[in-house]
Design a protein that fits this description.
Chain B: Belongs to the binding-protein-dependent transport system permease family. Chain B: It is a multi-pass membrane protein. Chain B: InterPro entries: ABC_transporter_permease, MetI-like, MetI-like_sf. Chain B: This is Lactose transport system permease protein LacF. The complex is a heterodimer of chains A (about 325) and B (about 300). Chain A is mainly alpha-helical and about 325 residues long. In chain A, about 75% of the residues lie in helices and about 0% in strands. Chain A is globular. Chain A starts with 9 loop residues before the first helix and ends with a helix. In chain A, about 45% of the residues are buried. In chain B, about 70% of the residues lie in helices and about 0% in strands. Chain B has twelve helices and no strands. In chain B, helix 3 runs antiparallel to helix 9 and helix 4 packs across helix 7. Chain B starts with a helix and ends in a 7-residue tail after the last helix. In chain B, about 50% of the residues are buried. Chains A and B meet through helix 3, helix 4, helix 7, helix 8 and helix 9 of A and helix 1, helix 3, helix 4, helix 5 and helix 6 of B.
Chain lengths: ~325, ~300
């Protein structure tokens, strides 16, 4: 971070030794040039700003990482260390916290539940969402606009308002506390954004390829699955990542619709239940281990697929 | 061919539409109806009570404290989160030392910062909420232990237990969780602004603060507005519910100091067995949401800048 390493800054350094006012340097062509290259009046400002911005950025970086690191470190401590020296390092690595959380506190089971439900709903969302989006984007039929806005309108309504009646809809269909019930609801509440995003995407794809396939005798269905879907791959990946994270991190829907059997909890729900029960039991180290178990796989996946995750999540906001 | 086309359309739409209608549309419509009844949510029988539920809202102090807290979140959360996001994104993209030929540039390692800042975005709300709950713990939490360590052992707030600051504590966690997303989003927008705009402005003697307000912000306005609506909906709905329900003592906080509308709907339904009344609260939440979106659209409407 020292100023000397960058040769581009040398003129600015010289300027500090002979502090000439800017105006004196400006009239000559060099002065103008220097200004344009940023070595003129802005240089010392730039340097101060550079230190300042690095300082601020590092502070926020610490604010983001400290709580996460702190949770990981605490998951290796025993309870007395967690209370006695919250900021210290563990004297011995207590790996048994992790196995206790995984087995006794059911984190392994919750993890599996989340995998099953999110796996099913992700496939369903992508398939049904892209089918609806394709038809709405590329076919002209009466009621097309109405259906489109019906789907897209779902993005703006507060979910909590629908929950009470939804609970009874599910109850009447005997779907409460079941994997397939949750899968159906996750799909339903993911459709608005998926249809919105993918229909925009299908509209941008060239018509000629689809027409060629139809002329060659392919049915509409075959054209969709063998021609259009492969062409829409970038859009599918973006919206797939968006849906995966949204469904994996879903908390409100299972909190209301999935409360019957303790073994069937989703990971997010299980974590909160764990926090409540371990809080009473005083097993704080087990709780931190559970938290870390829930946290690390997602963070690892994010670091590996970092580019795609960022593109997928921001694509929606940028349209 | 024509026949085949309509059969295809129907075939592709029937399943998504059925699922959507059953689990999203029908509950919303039913909610409006239930808000006019005295339904408990437990028994099948109910009777129409007209607008009684809505009249009752005016007498309900907890409701008004929830409205106050929700509106506070709605007004402050987007401002704080988006300002920090813009600030960091500008630092990352424009705050760096000027190198030869480059009029403006990002700080060194801006890519690493972006990866780091995005971390909280991929974590679920319960994880973030629990982390902060531990940090705020008055006896053994990281925050008070930190105050101890730097000699501020006289200052040991109750954090979530103190009605004066509980809501701010929850809000801090929500800001923490969301800033990274906007840093990345705004960075993407900023990097697509042509460099010669800055070149021209700097040549005319503008400093960086001027370039931010005259060039960067106007050209990013569309993205900022989208972010504003996202954050607003977050402050009113799912996210606010989860943060407050998990973090705050009670839940709802001491003296309902962190009670928010979505949580109150949930409590009235599943804790108090007043589903009819709860849906009336939900409808008022819907109204707040719609008013908010309309206001943002209206205020944000300005000439679209093409470049």
């Amino acid at each position: 971070m020292s100023a000397q390493t960058d040769p581009a800054d040398l003129p600015g350094v010289t300027k500090e030794h002979t502090p000439a006012p800017d105006a004196a340097r400006l009239p000559g062509p060099r002065g103008g040039q220097a200004h344009k290259d940023g070595h003129g009046g802005g240089s010392s400002e730039g340097k101060v700003l550079n230190v300042f911005s690095h300082g601020v950025l590092v502070i926020w970086g610490l604010l983001v990482t400290m709580p996460l690191l702190w949770a990981v470190v605490s998951s290796f401590k025993d309870d007395s260390e967690i209370f006695g020296s919250p900021w210290g390092l563990p004297s011995v690595l207590h790996f048994e916290n992790w196995s206790r959380a995984w087995d006794k506190a059911n984190m392994g089971q919750y993890f599996l539940n989340s995998l099953i439900v999110v796996g099913g709903s992700l496939i369903g969302t992508m398939l049904l969402g892209s089918m609806a989006a394709y038809v709405l984007a590329r076919f002209d039929f009466p009621g097309n606009r109405f259906l489109y806005f019906l789907f897209v309108g779902g993005m703006g309504f507060p979910v909590i308002l629908a929950l009470v009646p939804l609970f009874f809809v599910m109850k009447n269909m005997a779907l409460l506390d079941t994997y397939h019930g949750l899968i159906l609801v996750y799909i339903a509440y993911s459709l608005p954004f998926t249809v919105f995003f993918l229909s925009g995407f299908f509209r941008t794809l060239p018509t000629s390829v689809a027409e060629a396939a139809l002329i060659d005798g392919a049915s509409h269905t075959r054209t969709f699955f063998q021609v259009m879907l492969p062409m829409a791959k970038p859009g599918l990946i973006s919206v797939g990542i968006f849906n995966f994270l949204g469904q994996w991190n879903q908390y409100l829907l299972p909190t209301v619709l999935n409360v019957g059997e303790p073994d069937k909890k989703m990971l997010t729900q299980g974590l909160v239940a764990l926090a409540v029960s371990q809080g009473y039991k005083g097993d704080w180290s087990g709780l931190f281990a559970g938290l870390t178990i829930a946290m690390l796989p997602v963070l690892a996946a994010y670091i590996i697929f970092q580019r795609q995750v960022v593109a997928g999540l921001t694509a929606g906001a940028l349209k | 061919m024509k026949h085949g086309k309509y059969r295809f359309i129907a075939g592709f739409l029937v399943l998504p539409l059925a699922i959507y209608a059953i689990f999203v549309i029908s509950p919303f419509v039913q909610a409006i109806y239930y808000s006019l009844t005295d339904w408990t949510g437990l028994s099948p029988d109910m009777k129409m009570v007209g607008f009684d539920n809505y009249a009752r809202l005016f007498q309900d102090e907890v409701f008004w404290s929830a409205v106050g807290n929700s509106v506070t979140l709605l007004l402050l959360l987007p401002v704080v989160t988006l300002s920090l996001g813009l600030f960091f994104a500008f630092m990352l993209n424009v705050g760096g030392r000027r190198r030869k030929k480059a009029v403006i540039g990002g700080v060194r390692g801006s890519g690493a910062y972006k990866i780091l800042y995005f971390f909280p975005q991929v974590l679920s709300v319960p994880i973030v909420a629990l982390l902060f709950q531990f940090a705020y713990n008055p006896e053994s939490g990281a925050l008070n232990a930190f105050f101890d360590a730097i000699g501020l052992d006289g200052v040991q707030p109750d954090w979530l237990g103190d009605p004066q600051i509980a809501l701010w504590c929850v809000m801090a966690a929500m800001v923490w969780a969301n800033v990274g997303f906007y840093v990345v989003l705004f960075s993407a927008g900023m990097s697509s602004i042509p460099k010669d705009f800055y070149e021209a402005a700097l040549l005319d003697g503008a400093n960086r603060f001027n370039t931010f307000f005259r060039i960067t912000l106007p050209l990013l306005w569309d993205t900022v507005q989208t972010g504003w609506i996202y954050m607003g909906i977050l402050a009113l709905d799912v996210s606010a519910f989860a943060f407050v329900q998990i973090m705050s003592v009670g839940p709802g906080g001491p003296d309902y100091s962190t009670e928010v509308l979505p949580l109150y709907v949930y409590q009235k339904t599943f804790r108090d067995g007043q589903a009819g009344y709860a849906t009336a609260i939900g409808v008022s939440l819907l109204i707040v949401t719609l008013v908010f979106s309309a206001v943002v659209m209206r205020l944000g409407r300005r000439e679209r800048l093409e470049f």
